[in-house]
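Hi everyone,

Forwarding the result from last night's run.
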Amino acid sequence: MAFFARSKSPQAPAQPERNKTLPDPPAVNADGRRSLEDHRDYLLSLVRPLRPFGIGTLDALGQSLCENIVSDIDLPTFTSALVDGYAVRGSDLVWASESRPVRLPVVDVLESIDYRGAPLTPGTAVRIAVGAPVPEGADAVIGLEHTDSGTDVVTITSEVAFHANLRMAGSDIADGTHLLSTGDILSPGAIGLLAEIGIDKVLVRPRPRVVVVTSGSHLVQPGLPLTSRAQSYDTTTTLIAAAARADGAQVYPLNTLEPNKAKLTQVLSDQLIRADLVVAIGDLDGPDGVAEVLGALGRADVSEVAIRPGGRQGFALIGDDETPVVALPLGAVSAFVGYHAFVRPLLRKLAGLDPLHRPVVTAPSRAKITGTRGFTELIPAQLTARGAVPVGSAESELAFDLSRADALVIVPEPADAVGPTSDVECWVLTPPPR
């Protein structure tokens, strides 16, 4: 079955030996840093959209269609009357008028969509209710106002145009009409359209399955007690898992880990069976850091990126299927910024969506923003009627600031400051807080 095409079998056929290193990375500036755009584009070049598979139409909501949809039925499925009256042949009413009425025998009565009756013979009429199917041979319906409403014989005092008062079969959707195209995103309306033409399964890119794990010596999983002043709760696992879920991913958050190379190696290896993407949050460097684990498991890249906060970034392709792993720095704001700069575009590419599409607005800054020359700054802010208001302090790593933000203000390189009332570009966060 197509559904199981996503499973990763440990007995997969032997693959040709892969390169042991990733392709050449992008160039760096004089300070040894990549630009945000170069790093993002480099990561995007290393992943491919997920293979399409068949899924129930309701479960395909919001996903990228991988086939063209052509109707194989007419809608409406039959020609019906738009008014109460008589189904007739227009040729029988030529010259009909008040002074020269035409009298036709009424041979049938049609009041239900379940009964179409016999074909209409020339020189006869059929009494018909609005919505009832028009008999074969009839090419118009004459309204009651132009008749005497006769039961056995009807007197008609007007001509009628061809196809007058008919709702024709296929007038909305004809058999063979192209309705949806590969790459379309399935909205609720599109899902309803699929059902309307009788489709219950459709070929789509699946929702990316994302595993999120955080390691840190001072971190405690929410729900457990803090036992020392040095400890704090692990915010990033829940935060990044929620962001990925809001962007349409199927998310698997893991328990918080102690920094331990063997343990992290085992956890990442175990998760590959259900992951299309792994987000590993923690210290990249050191003997038990994420970078060393990724280097041991696959082809890895750790670099300095000209982005603040969170300039140290990691990436790897690990396992037999070369599952992508994005390593983000600790800290709620740093990890959140890294998610929107790098993880979200990868998720969208895996799902077959435009990786760079996001809601963007330009608004005046309501405060002076002091950036760092040579870095792209991404600053949590609230969008108001008067502009963008930064929230939190420059060094804050609190999710509290993100809870009040509905945008990230972008201060691009090489600017080191933005004055009040200056226009700034803002990435709108989805979903925004209520």
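The CA atoms of residues 28 and 373 lie 15 Å apart.

Cheers,
N.
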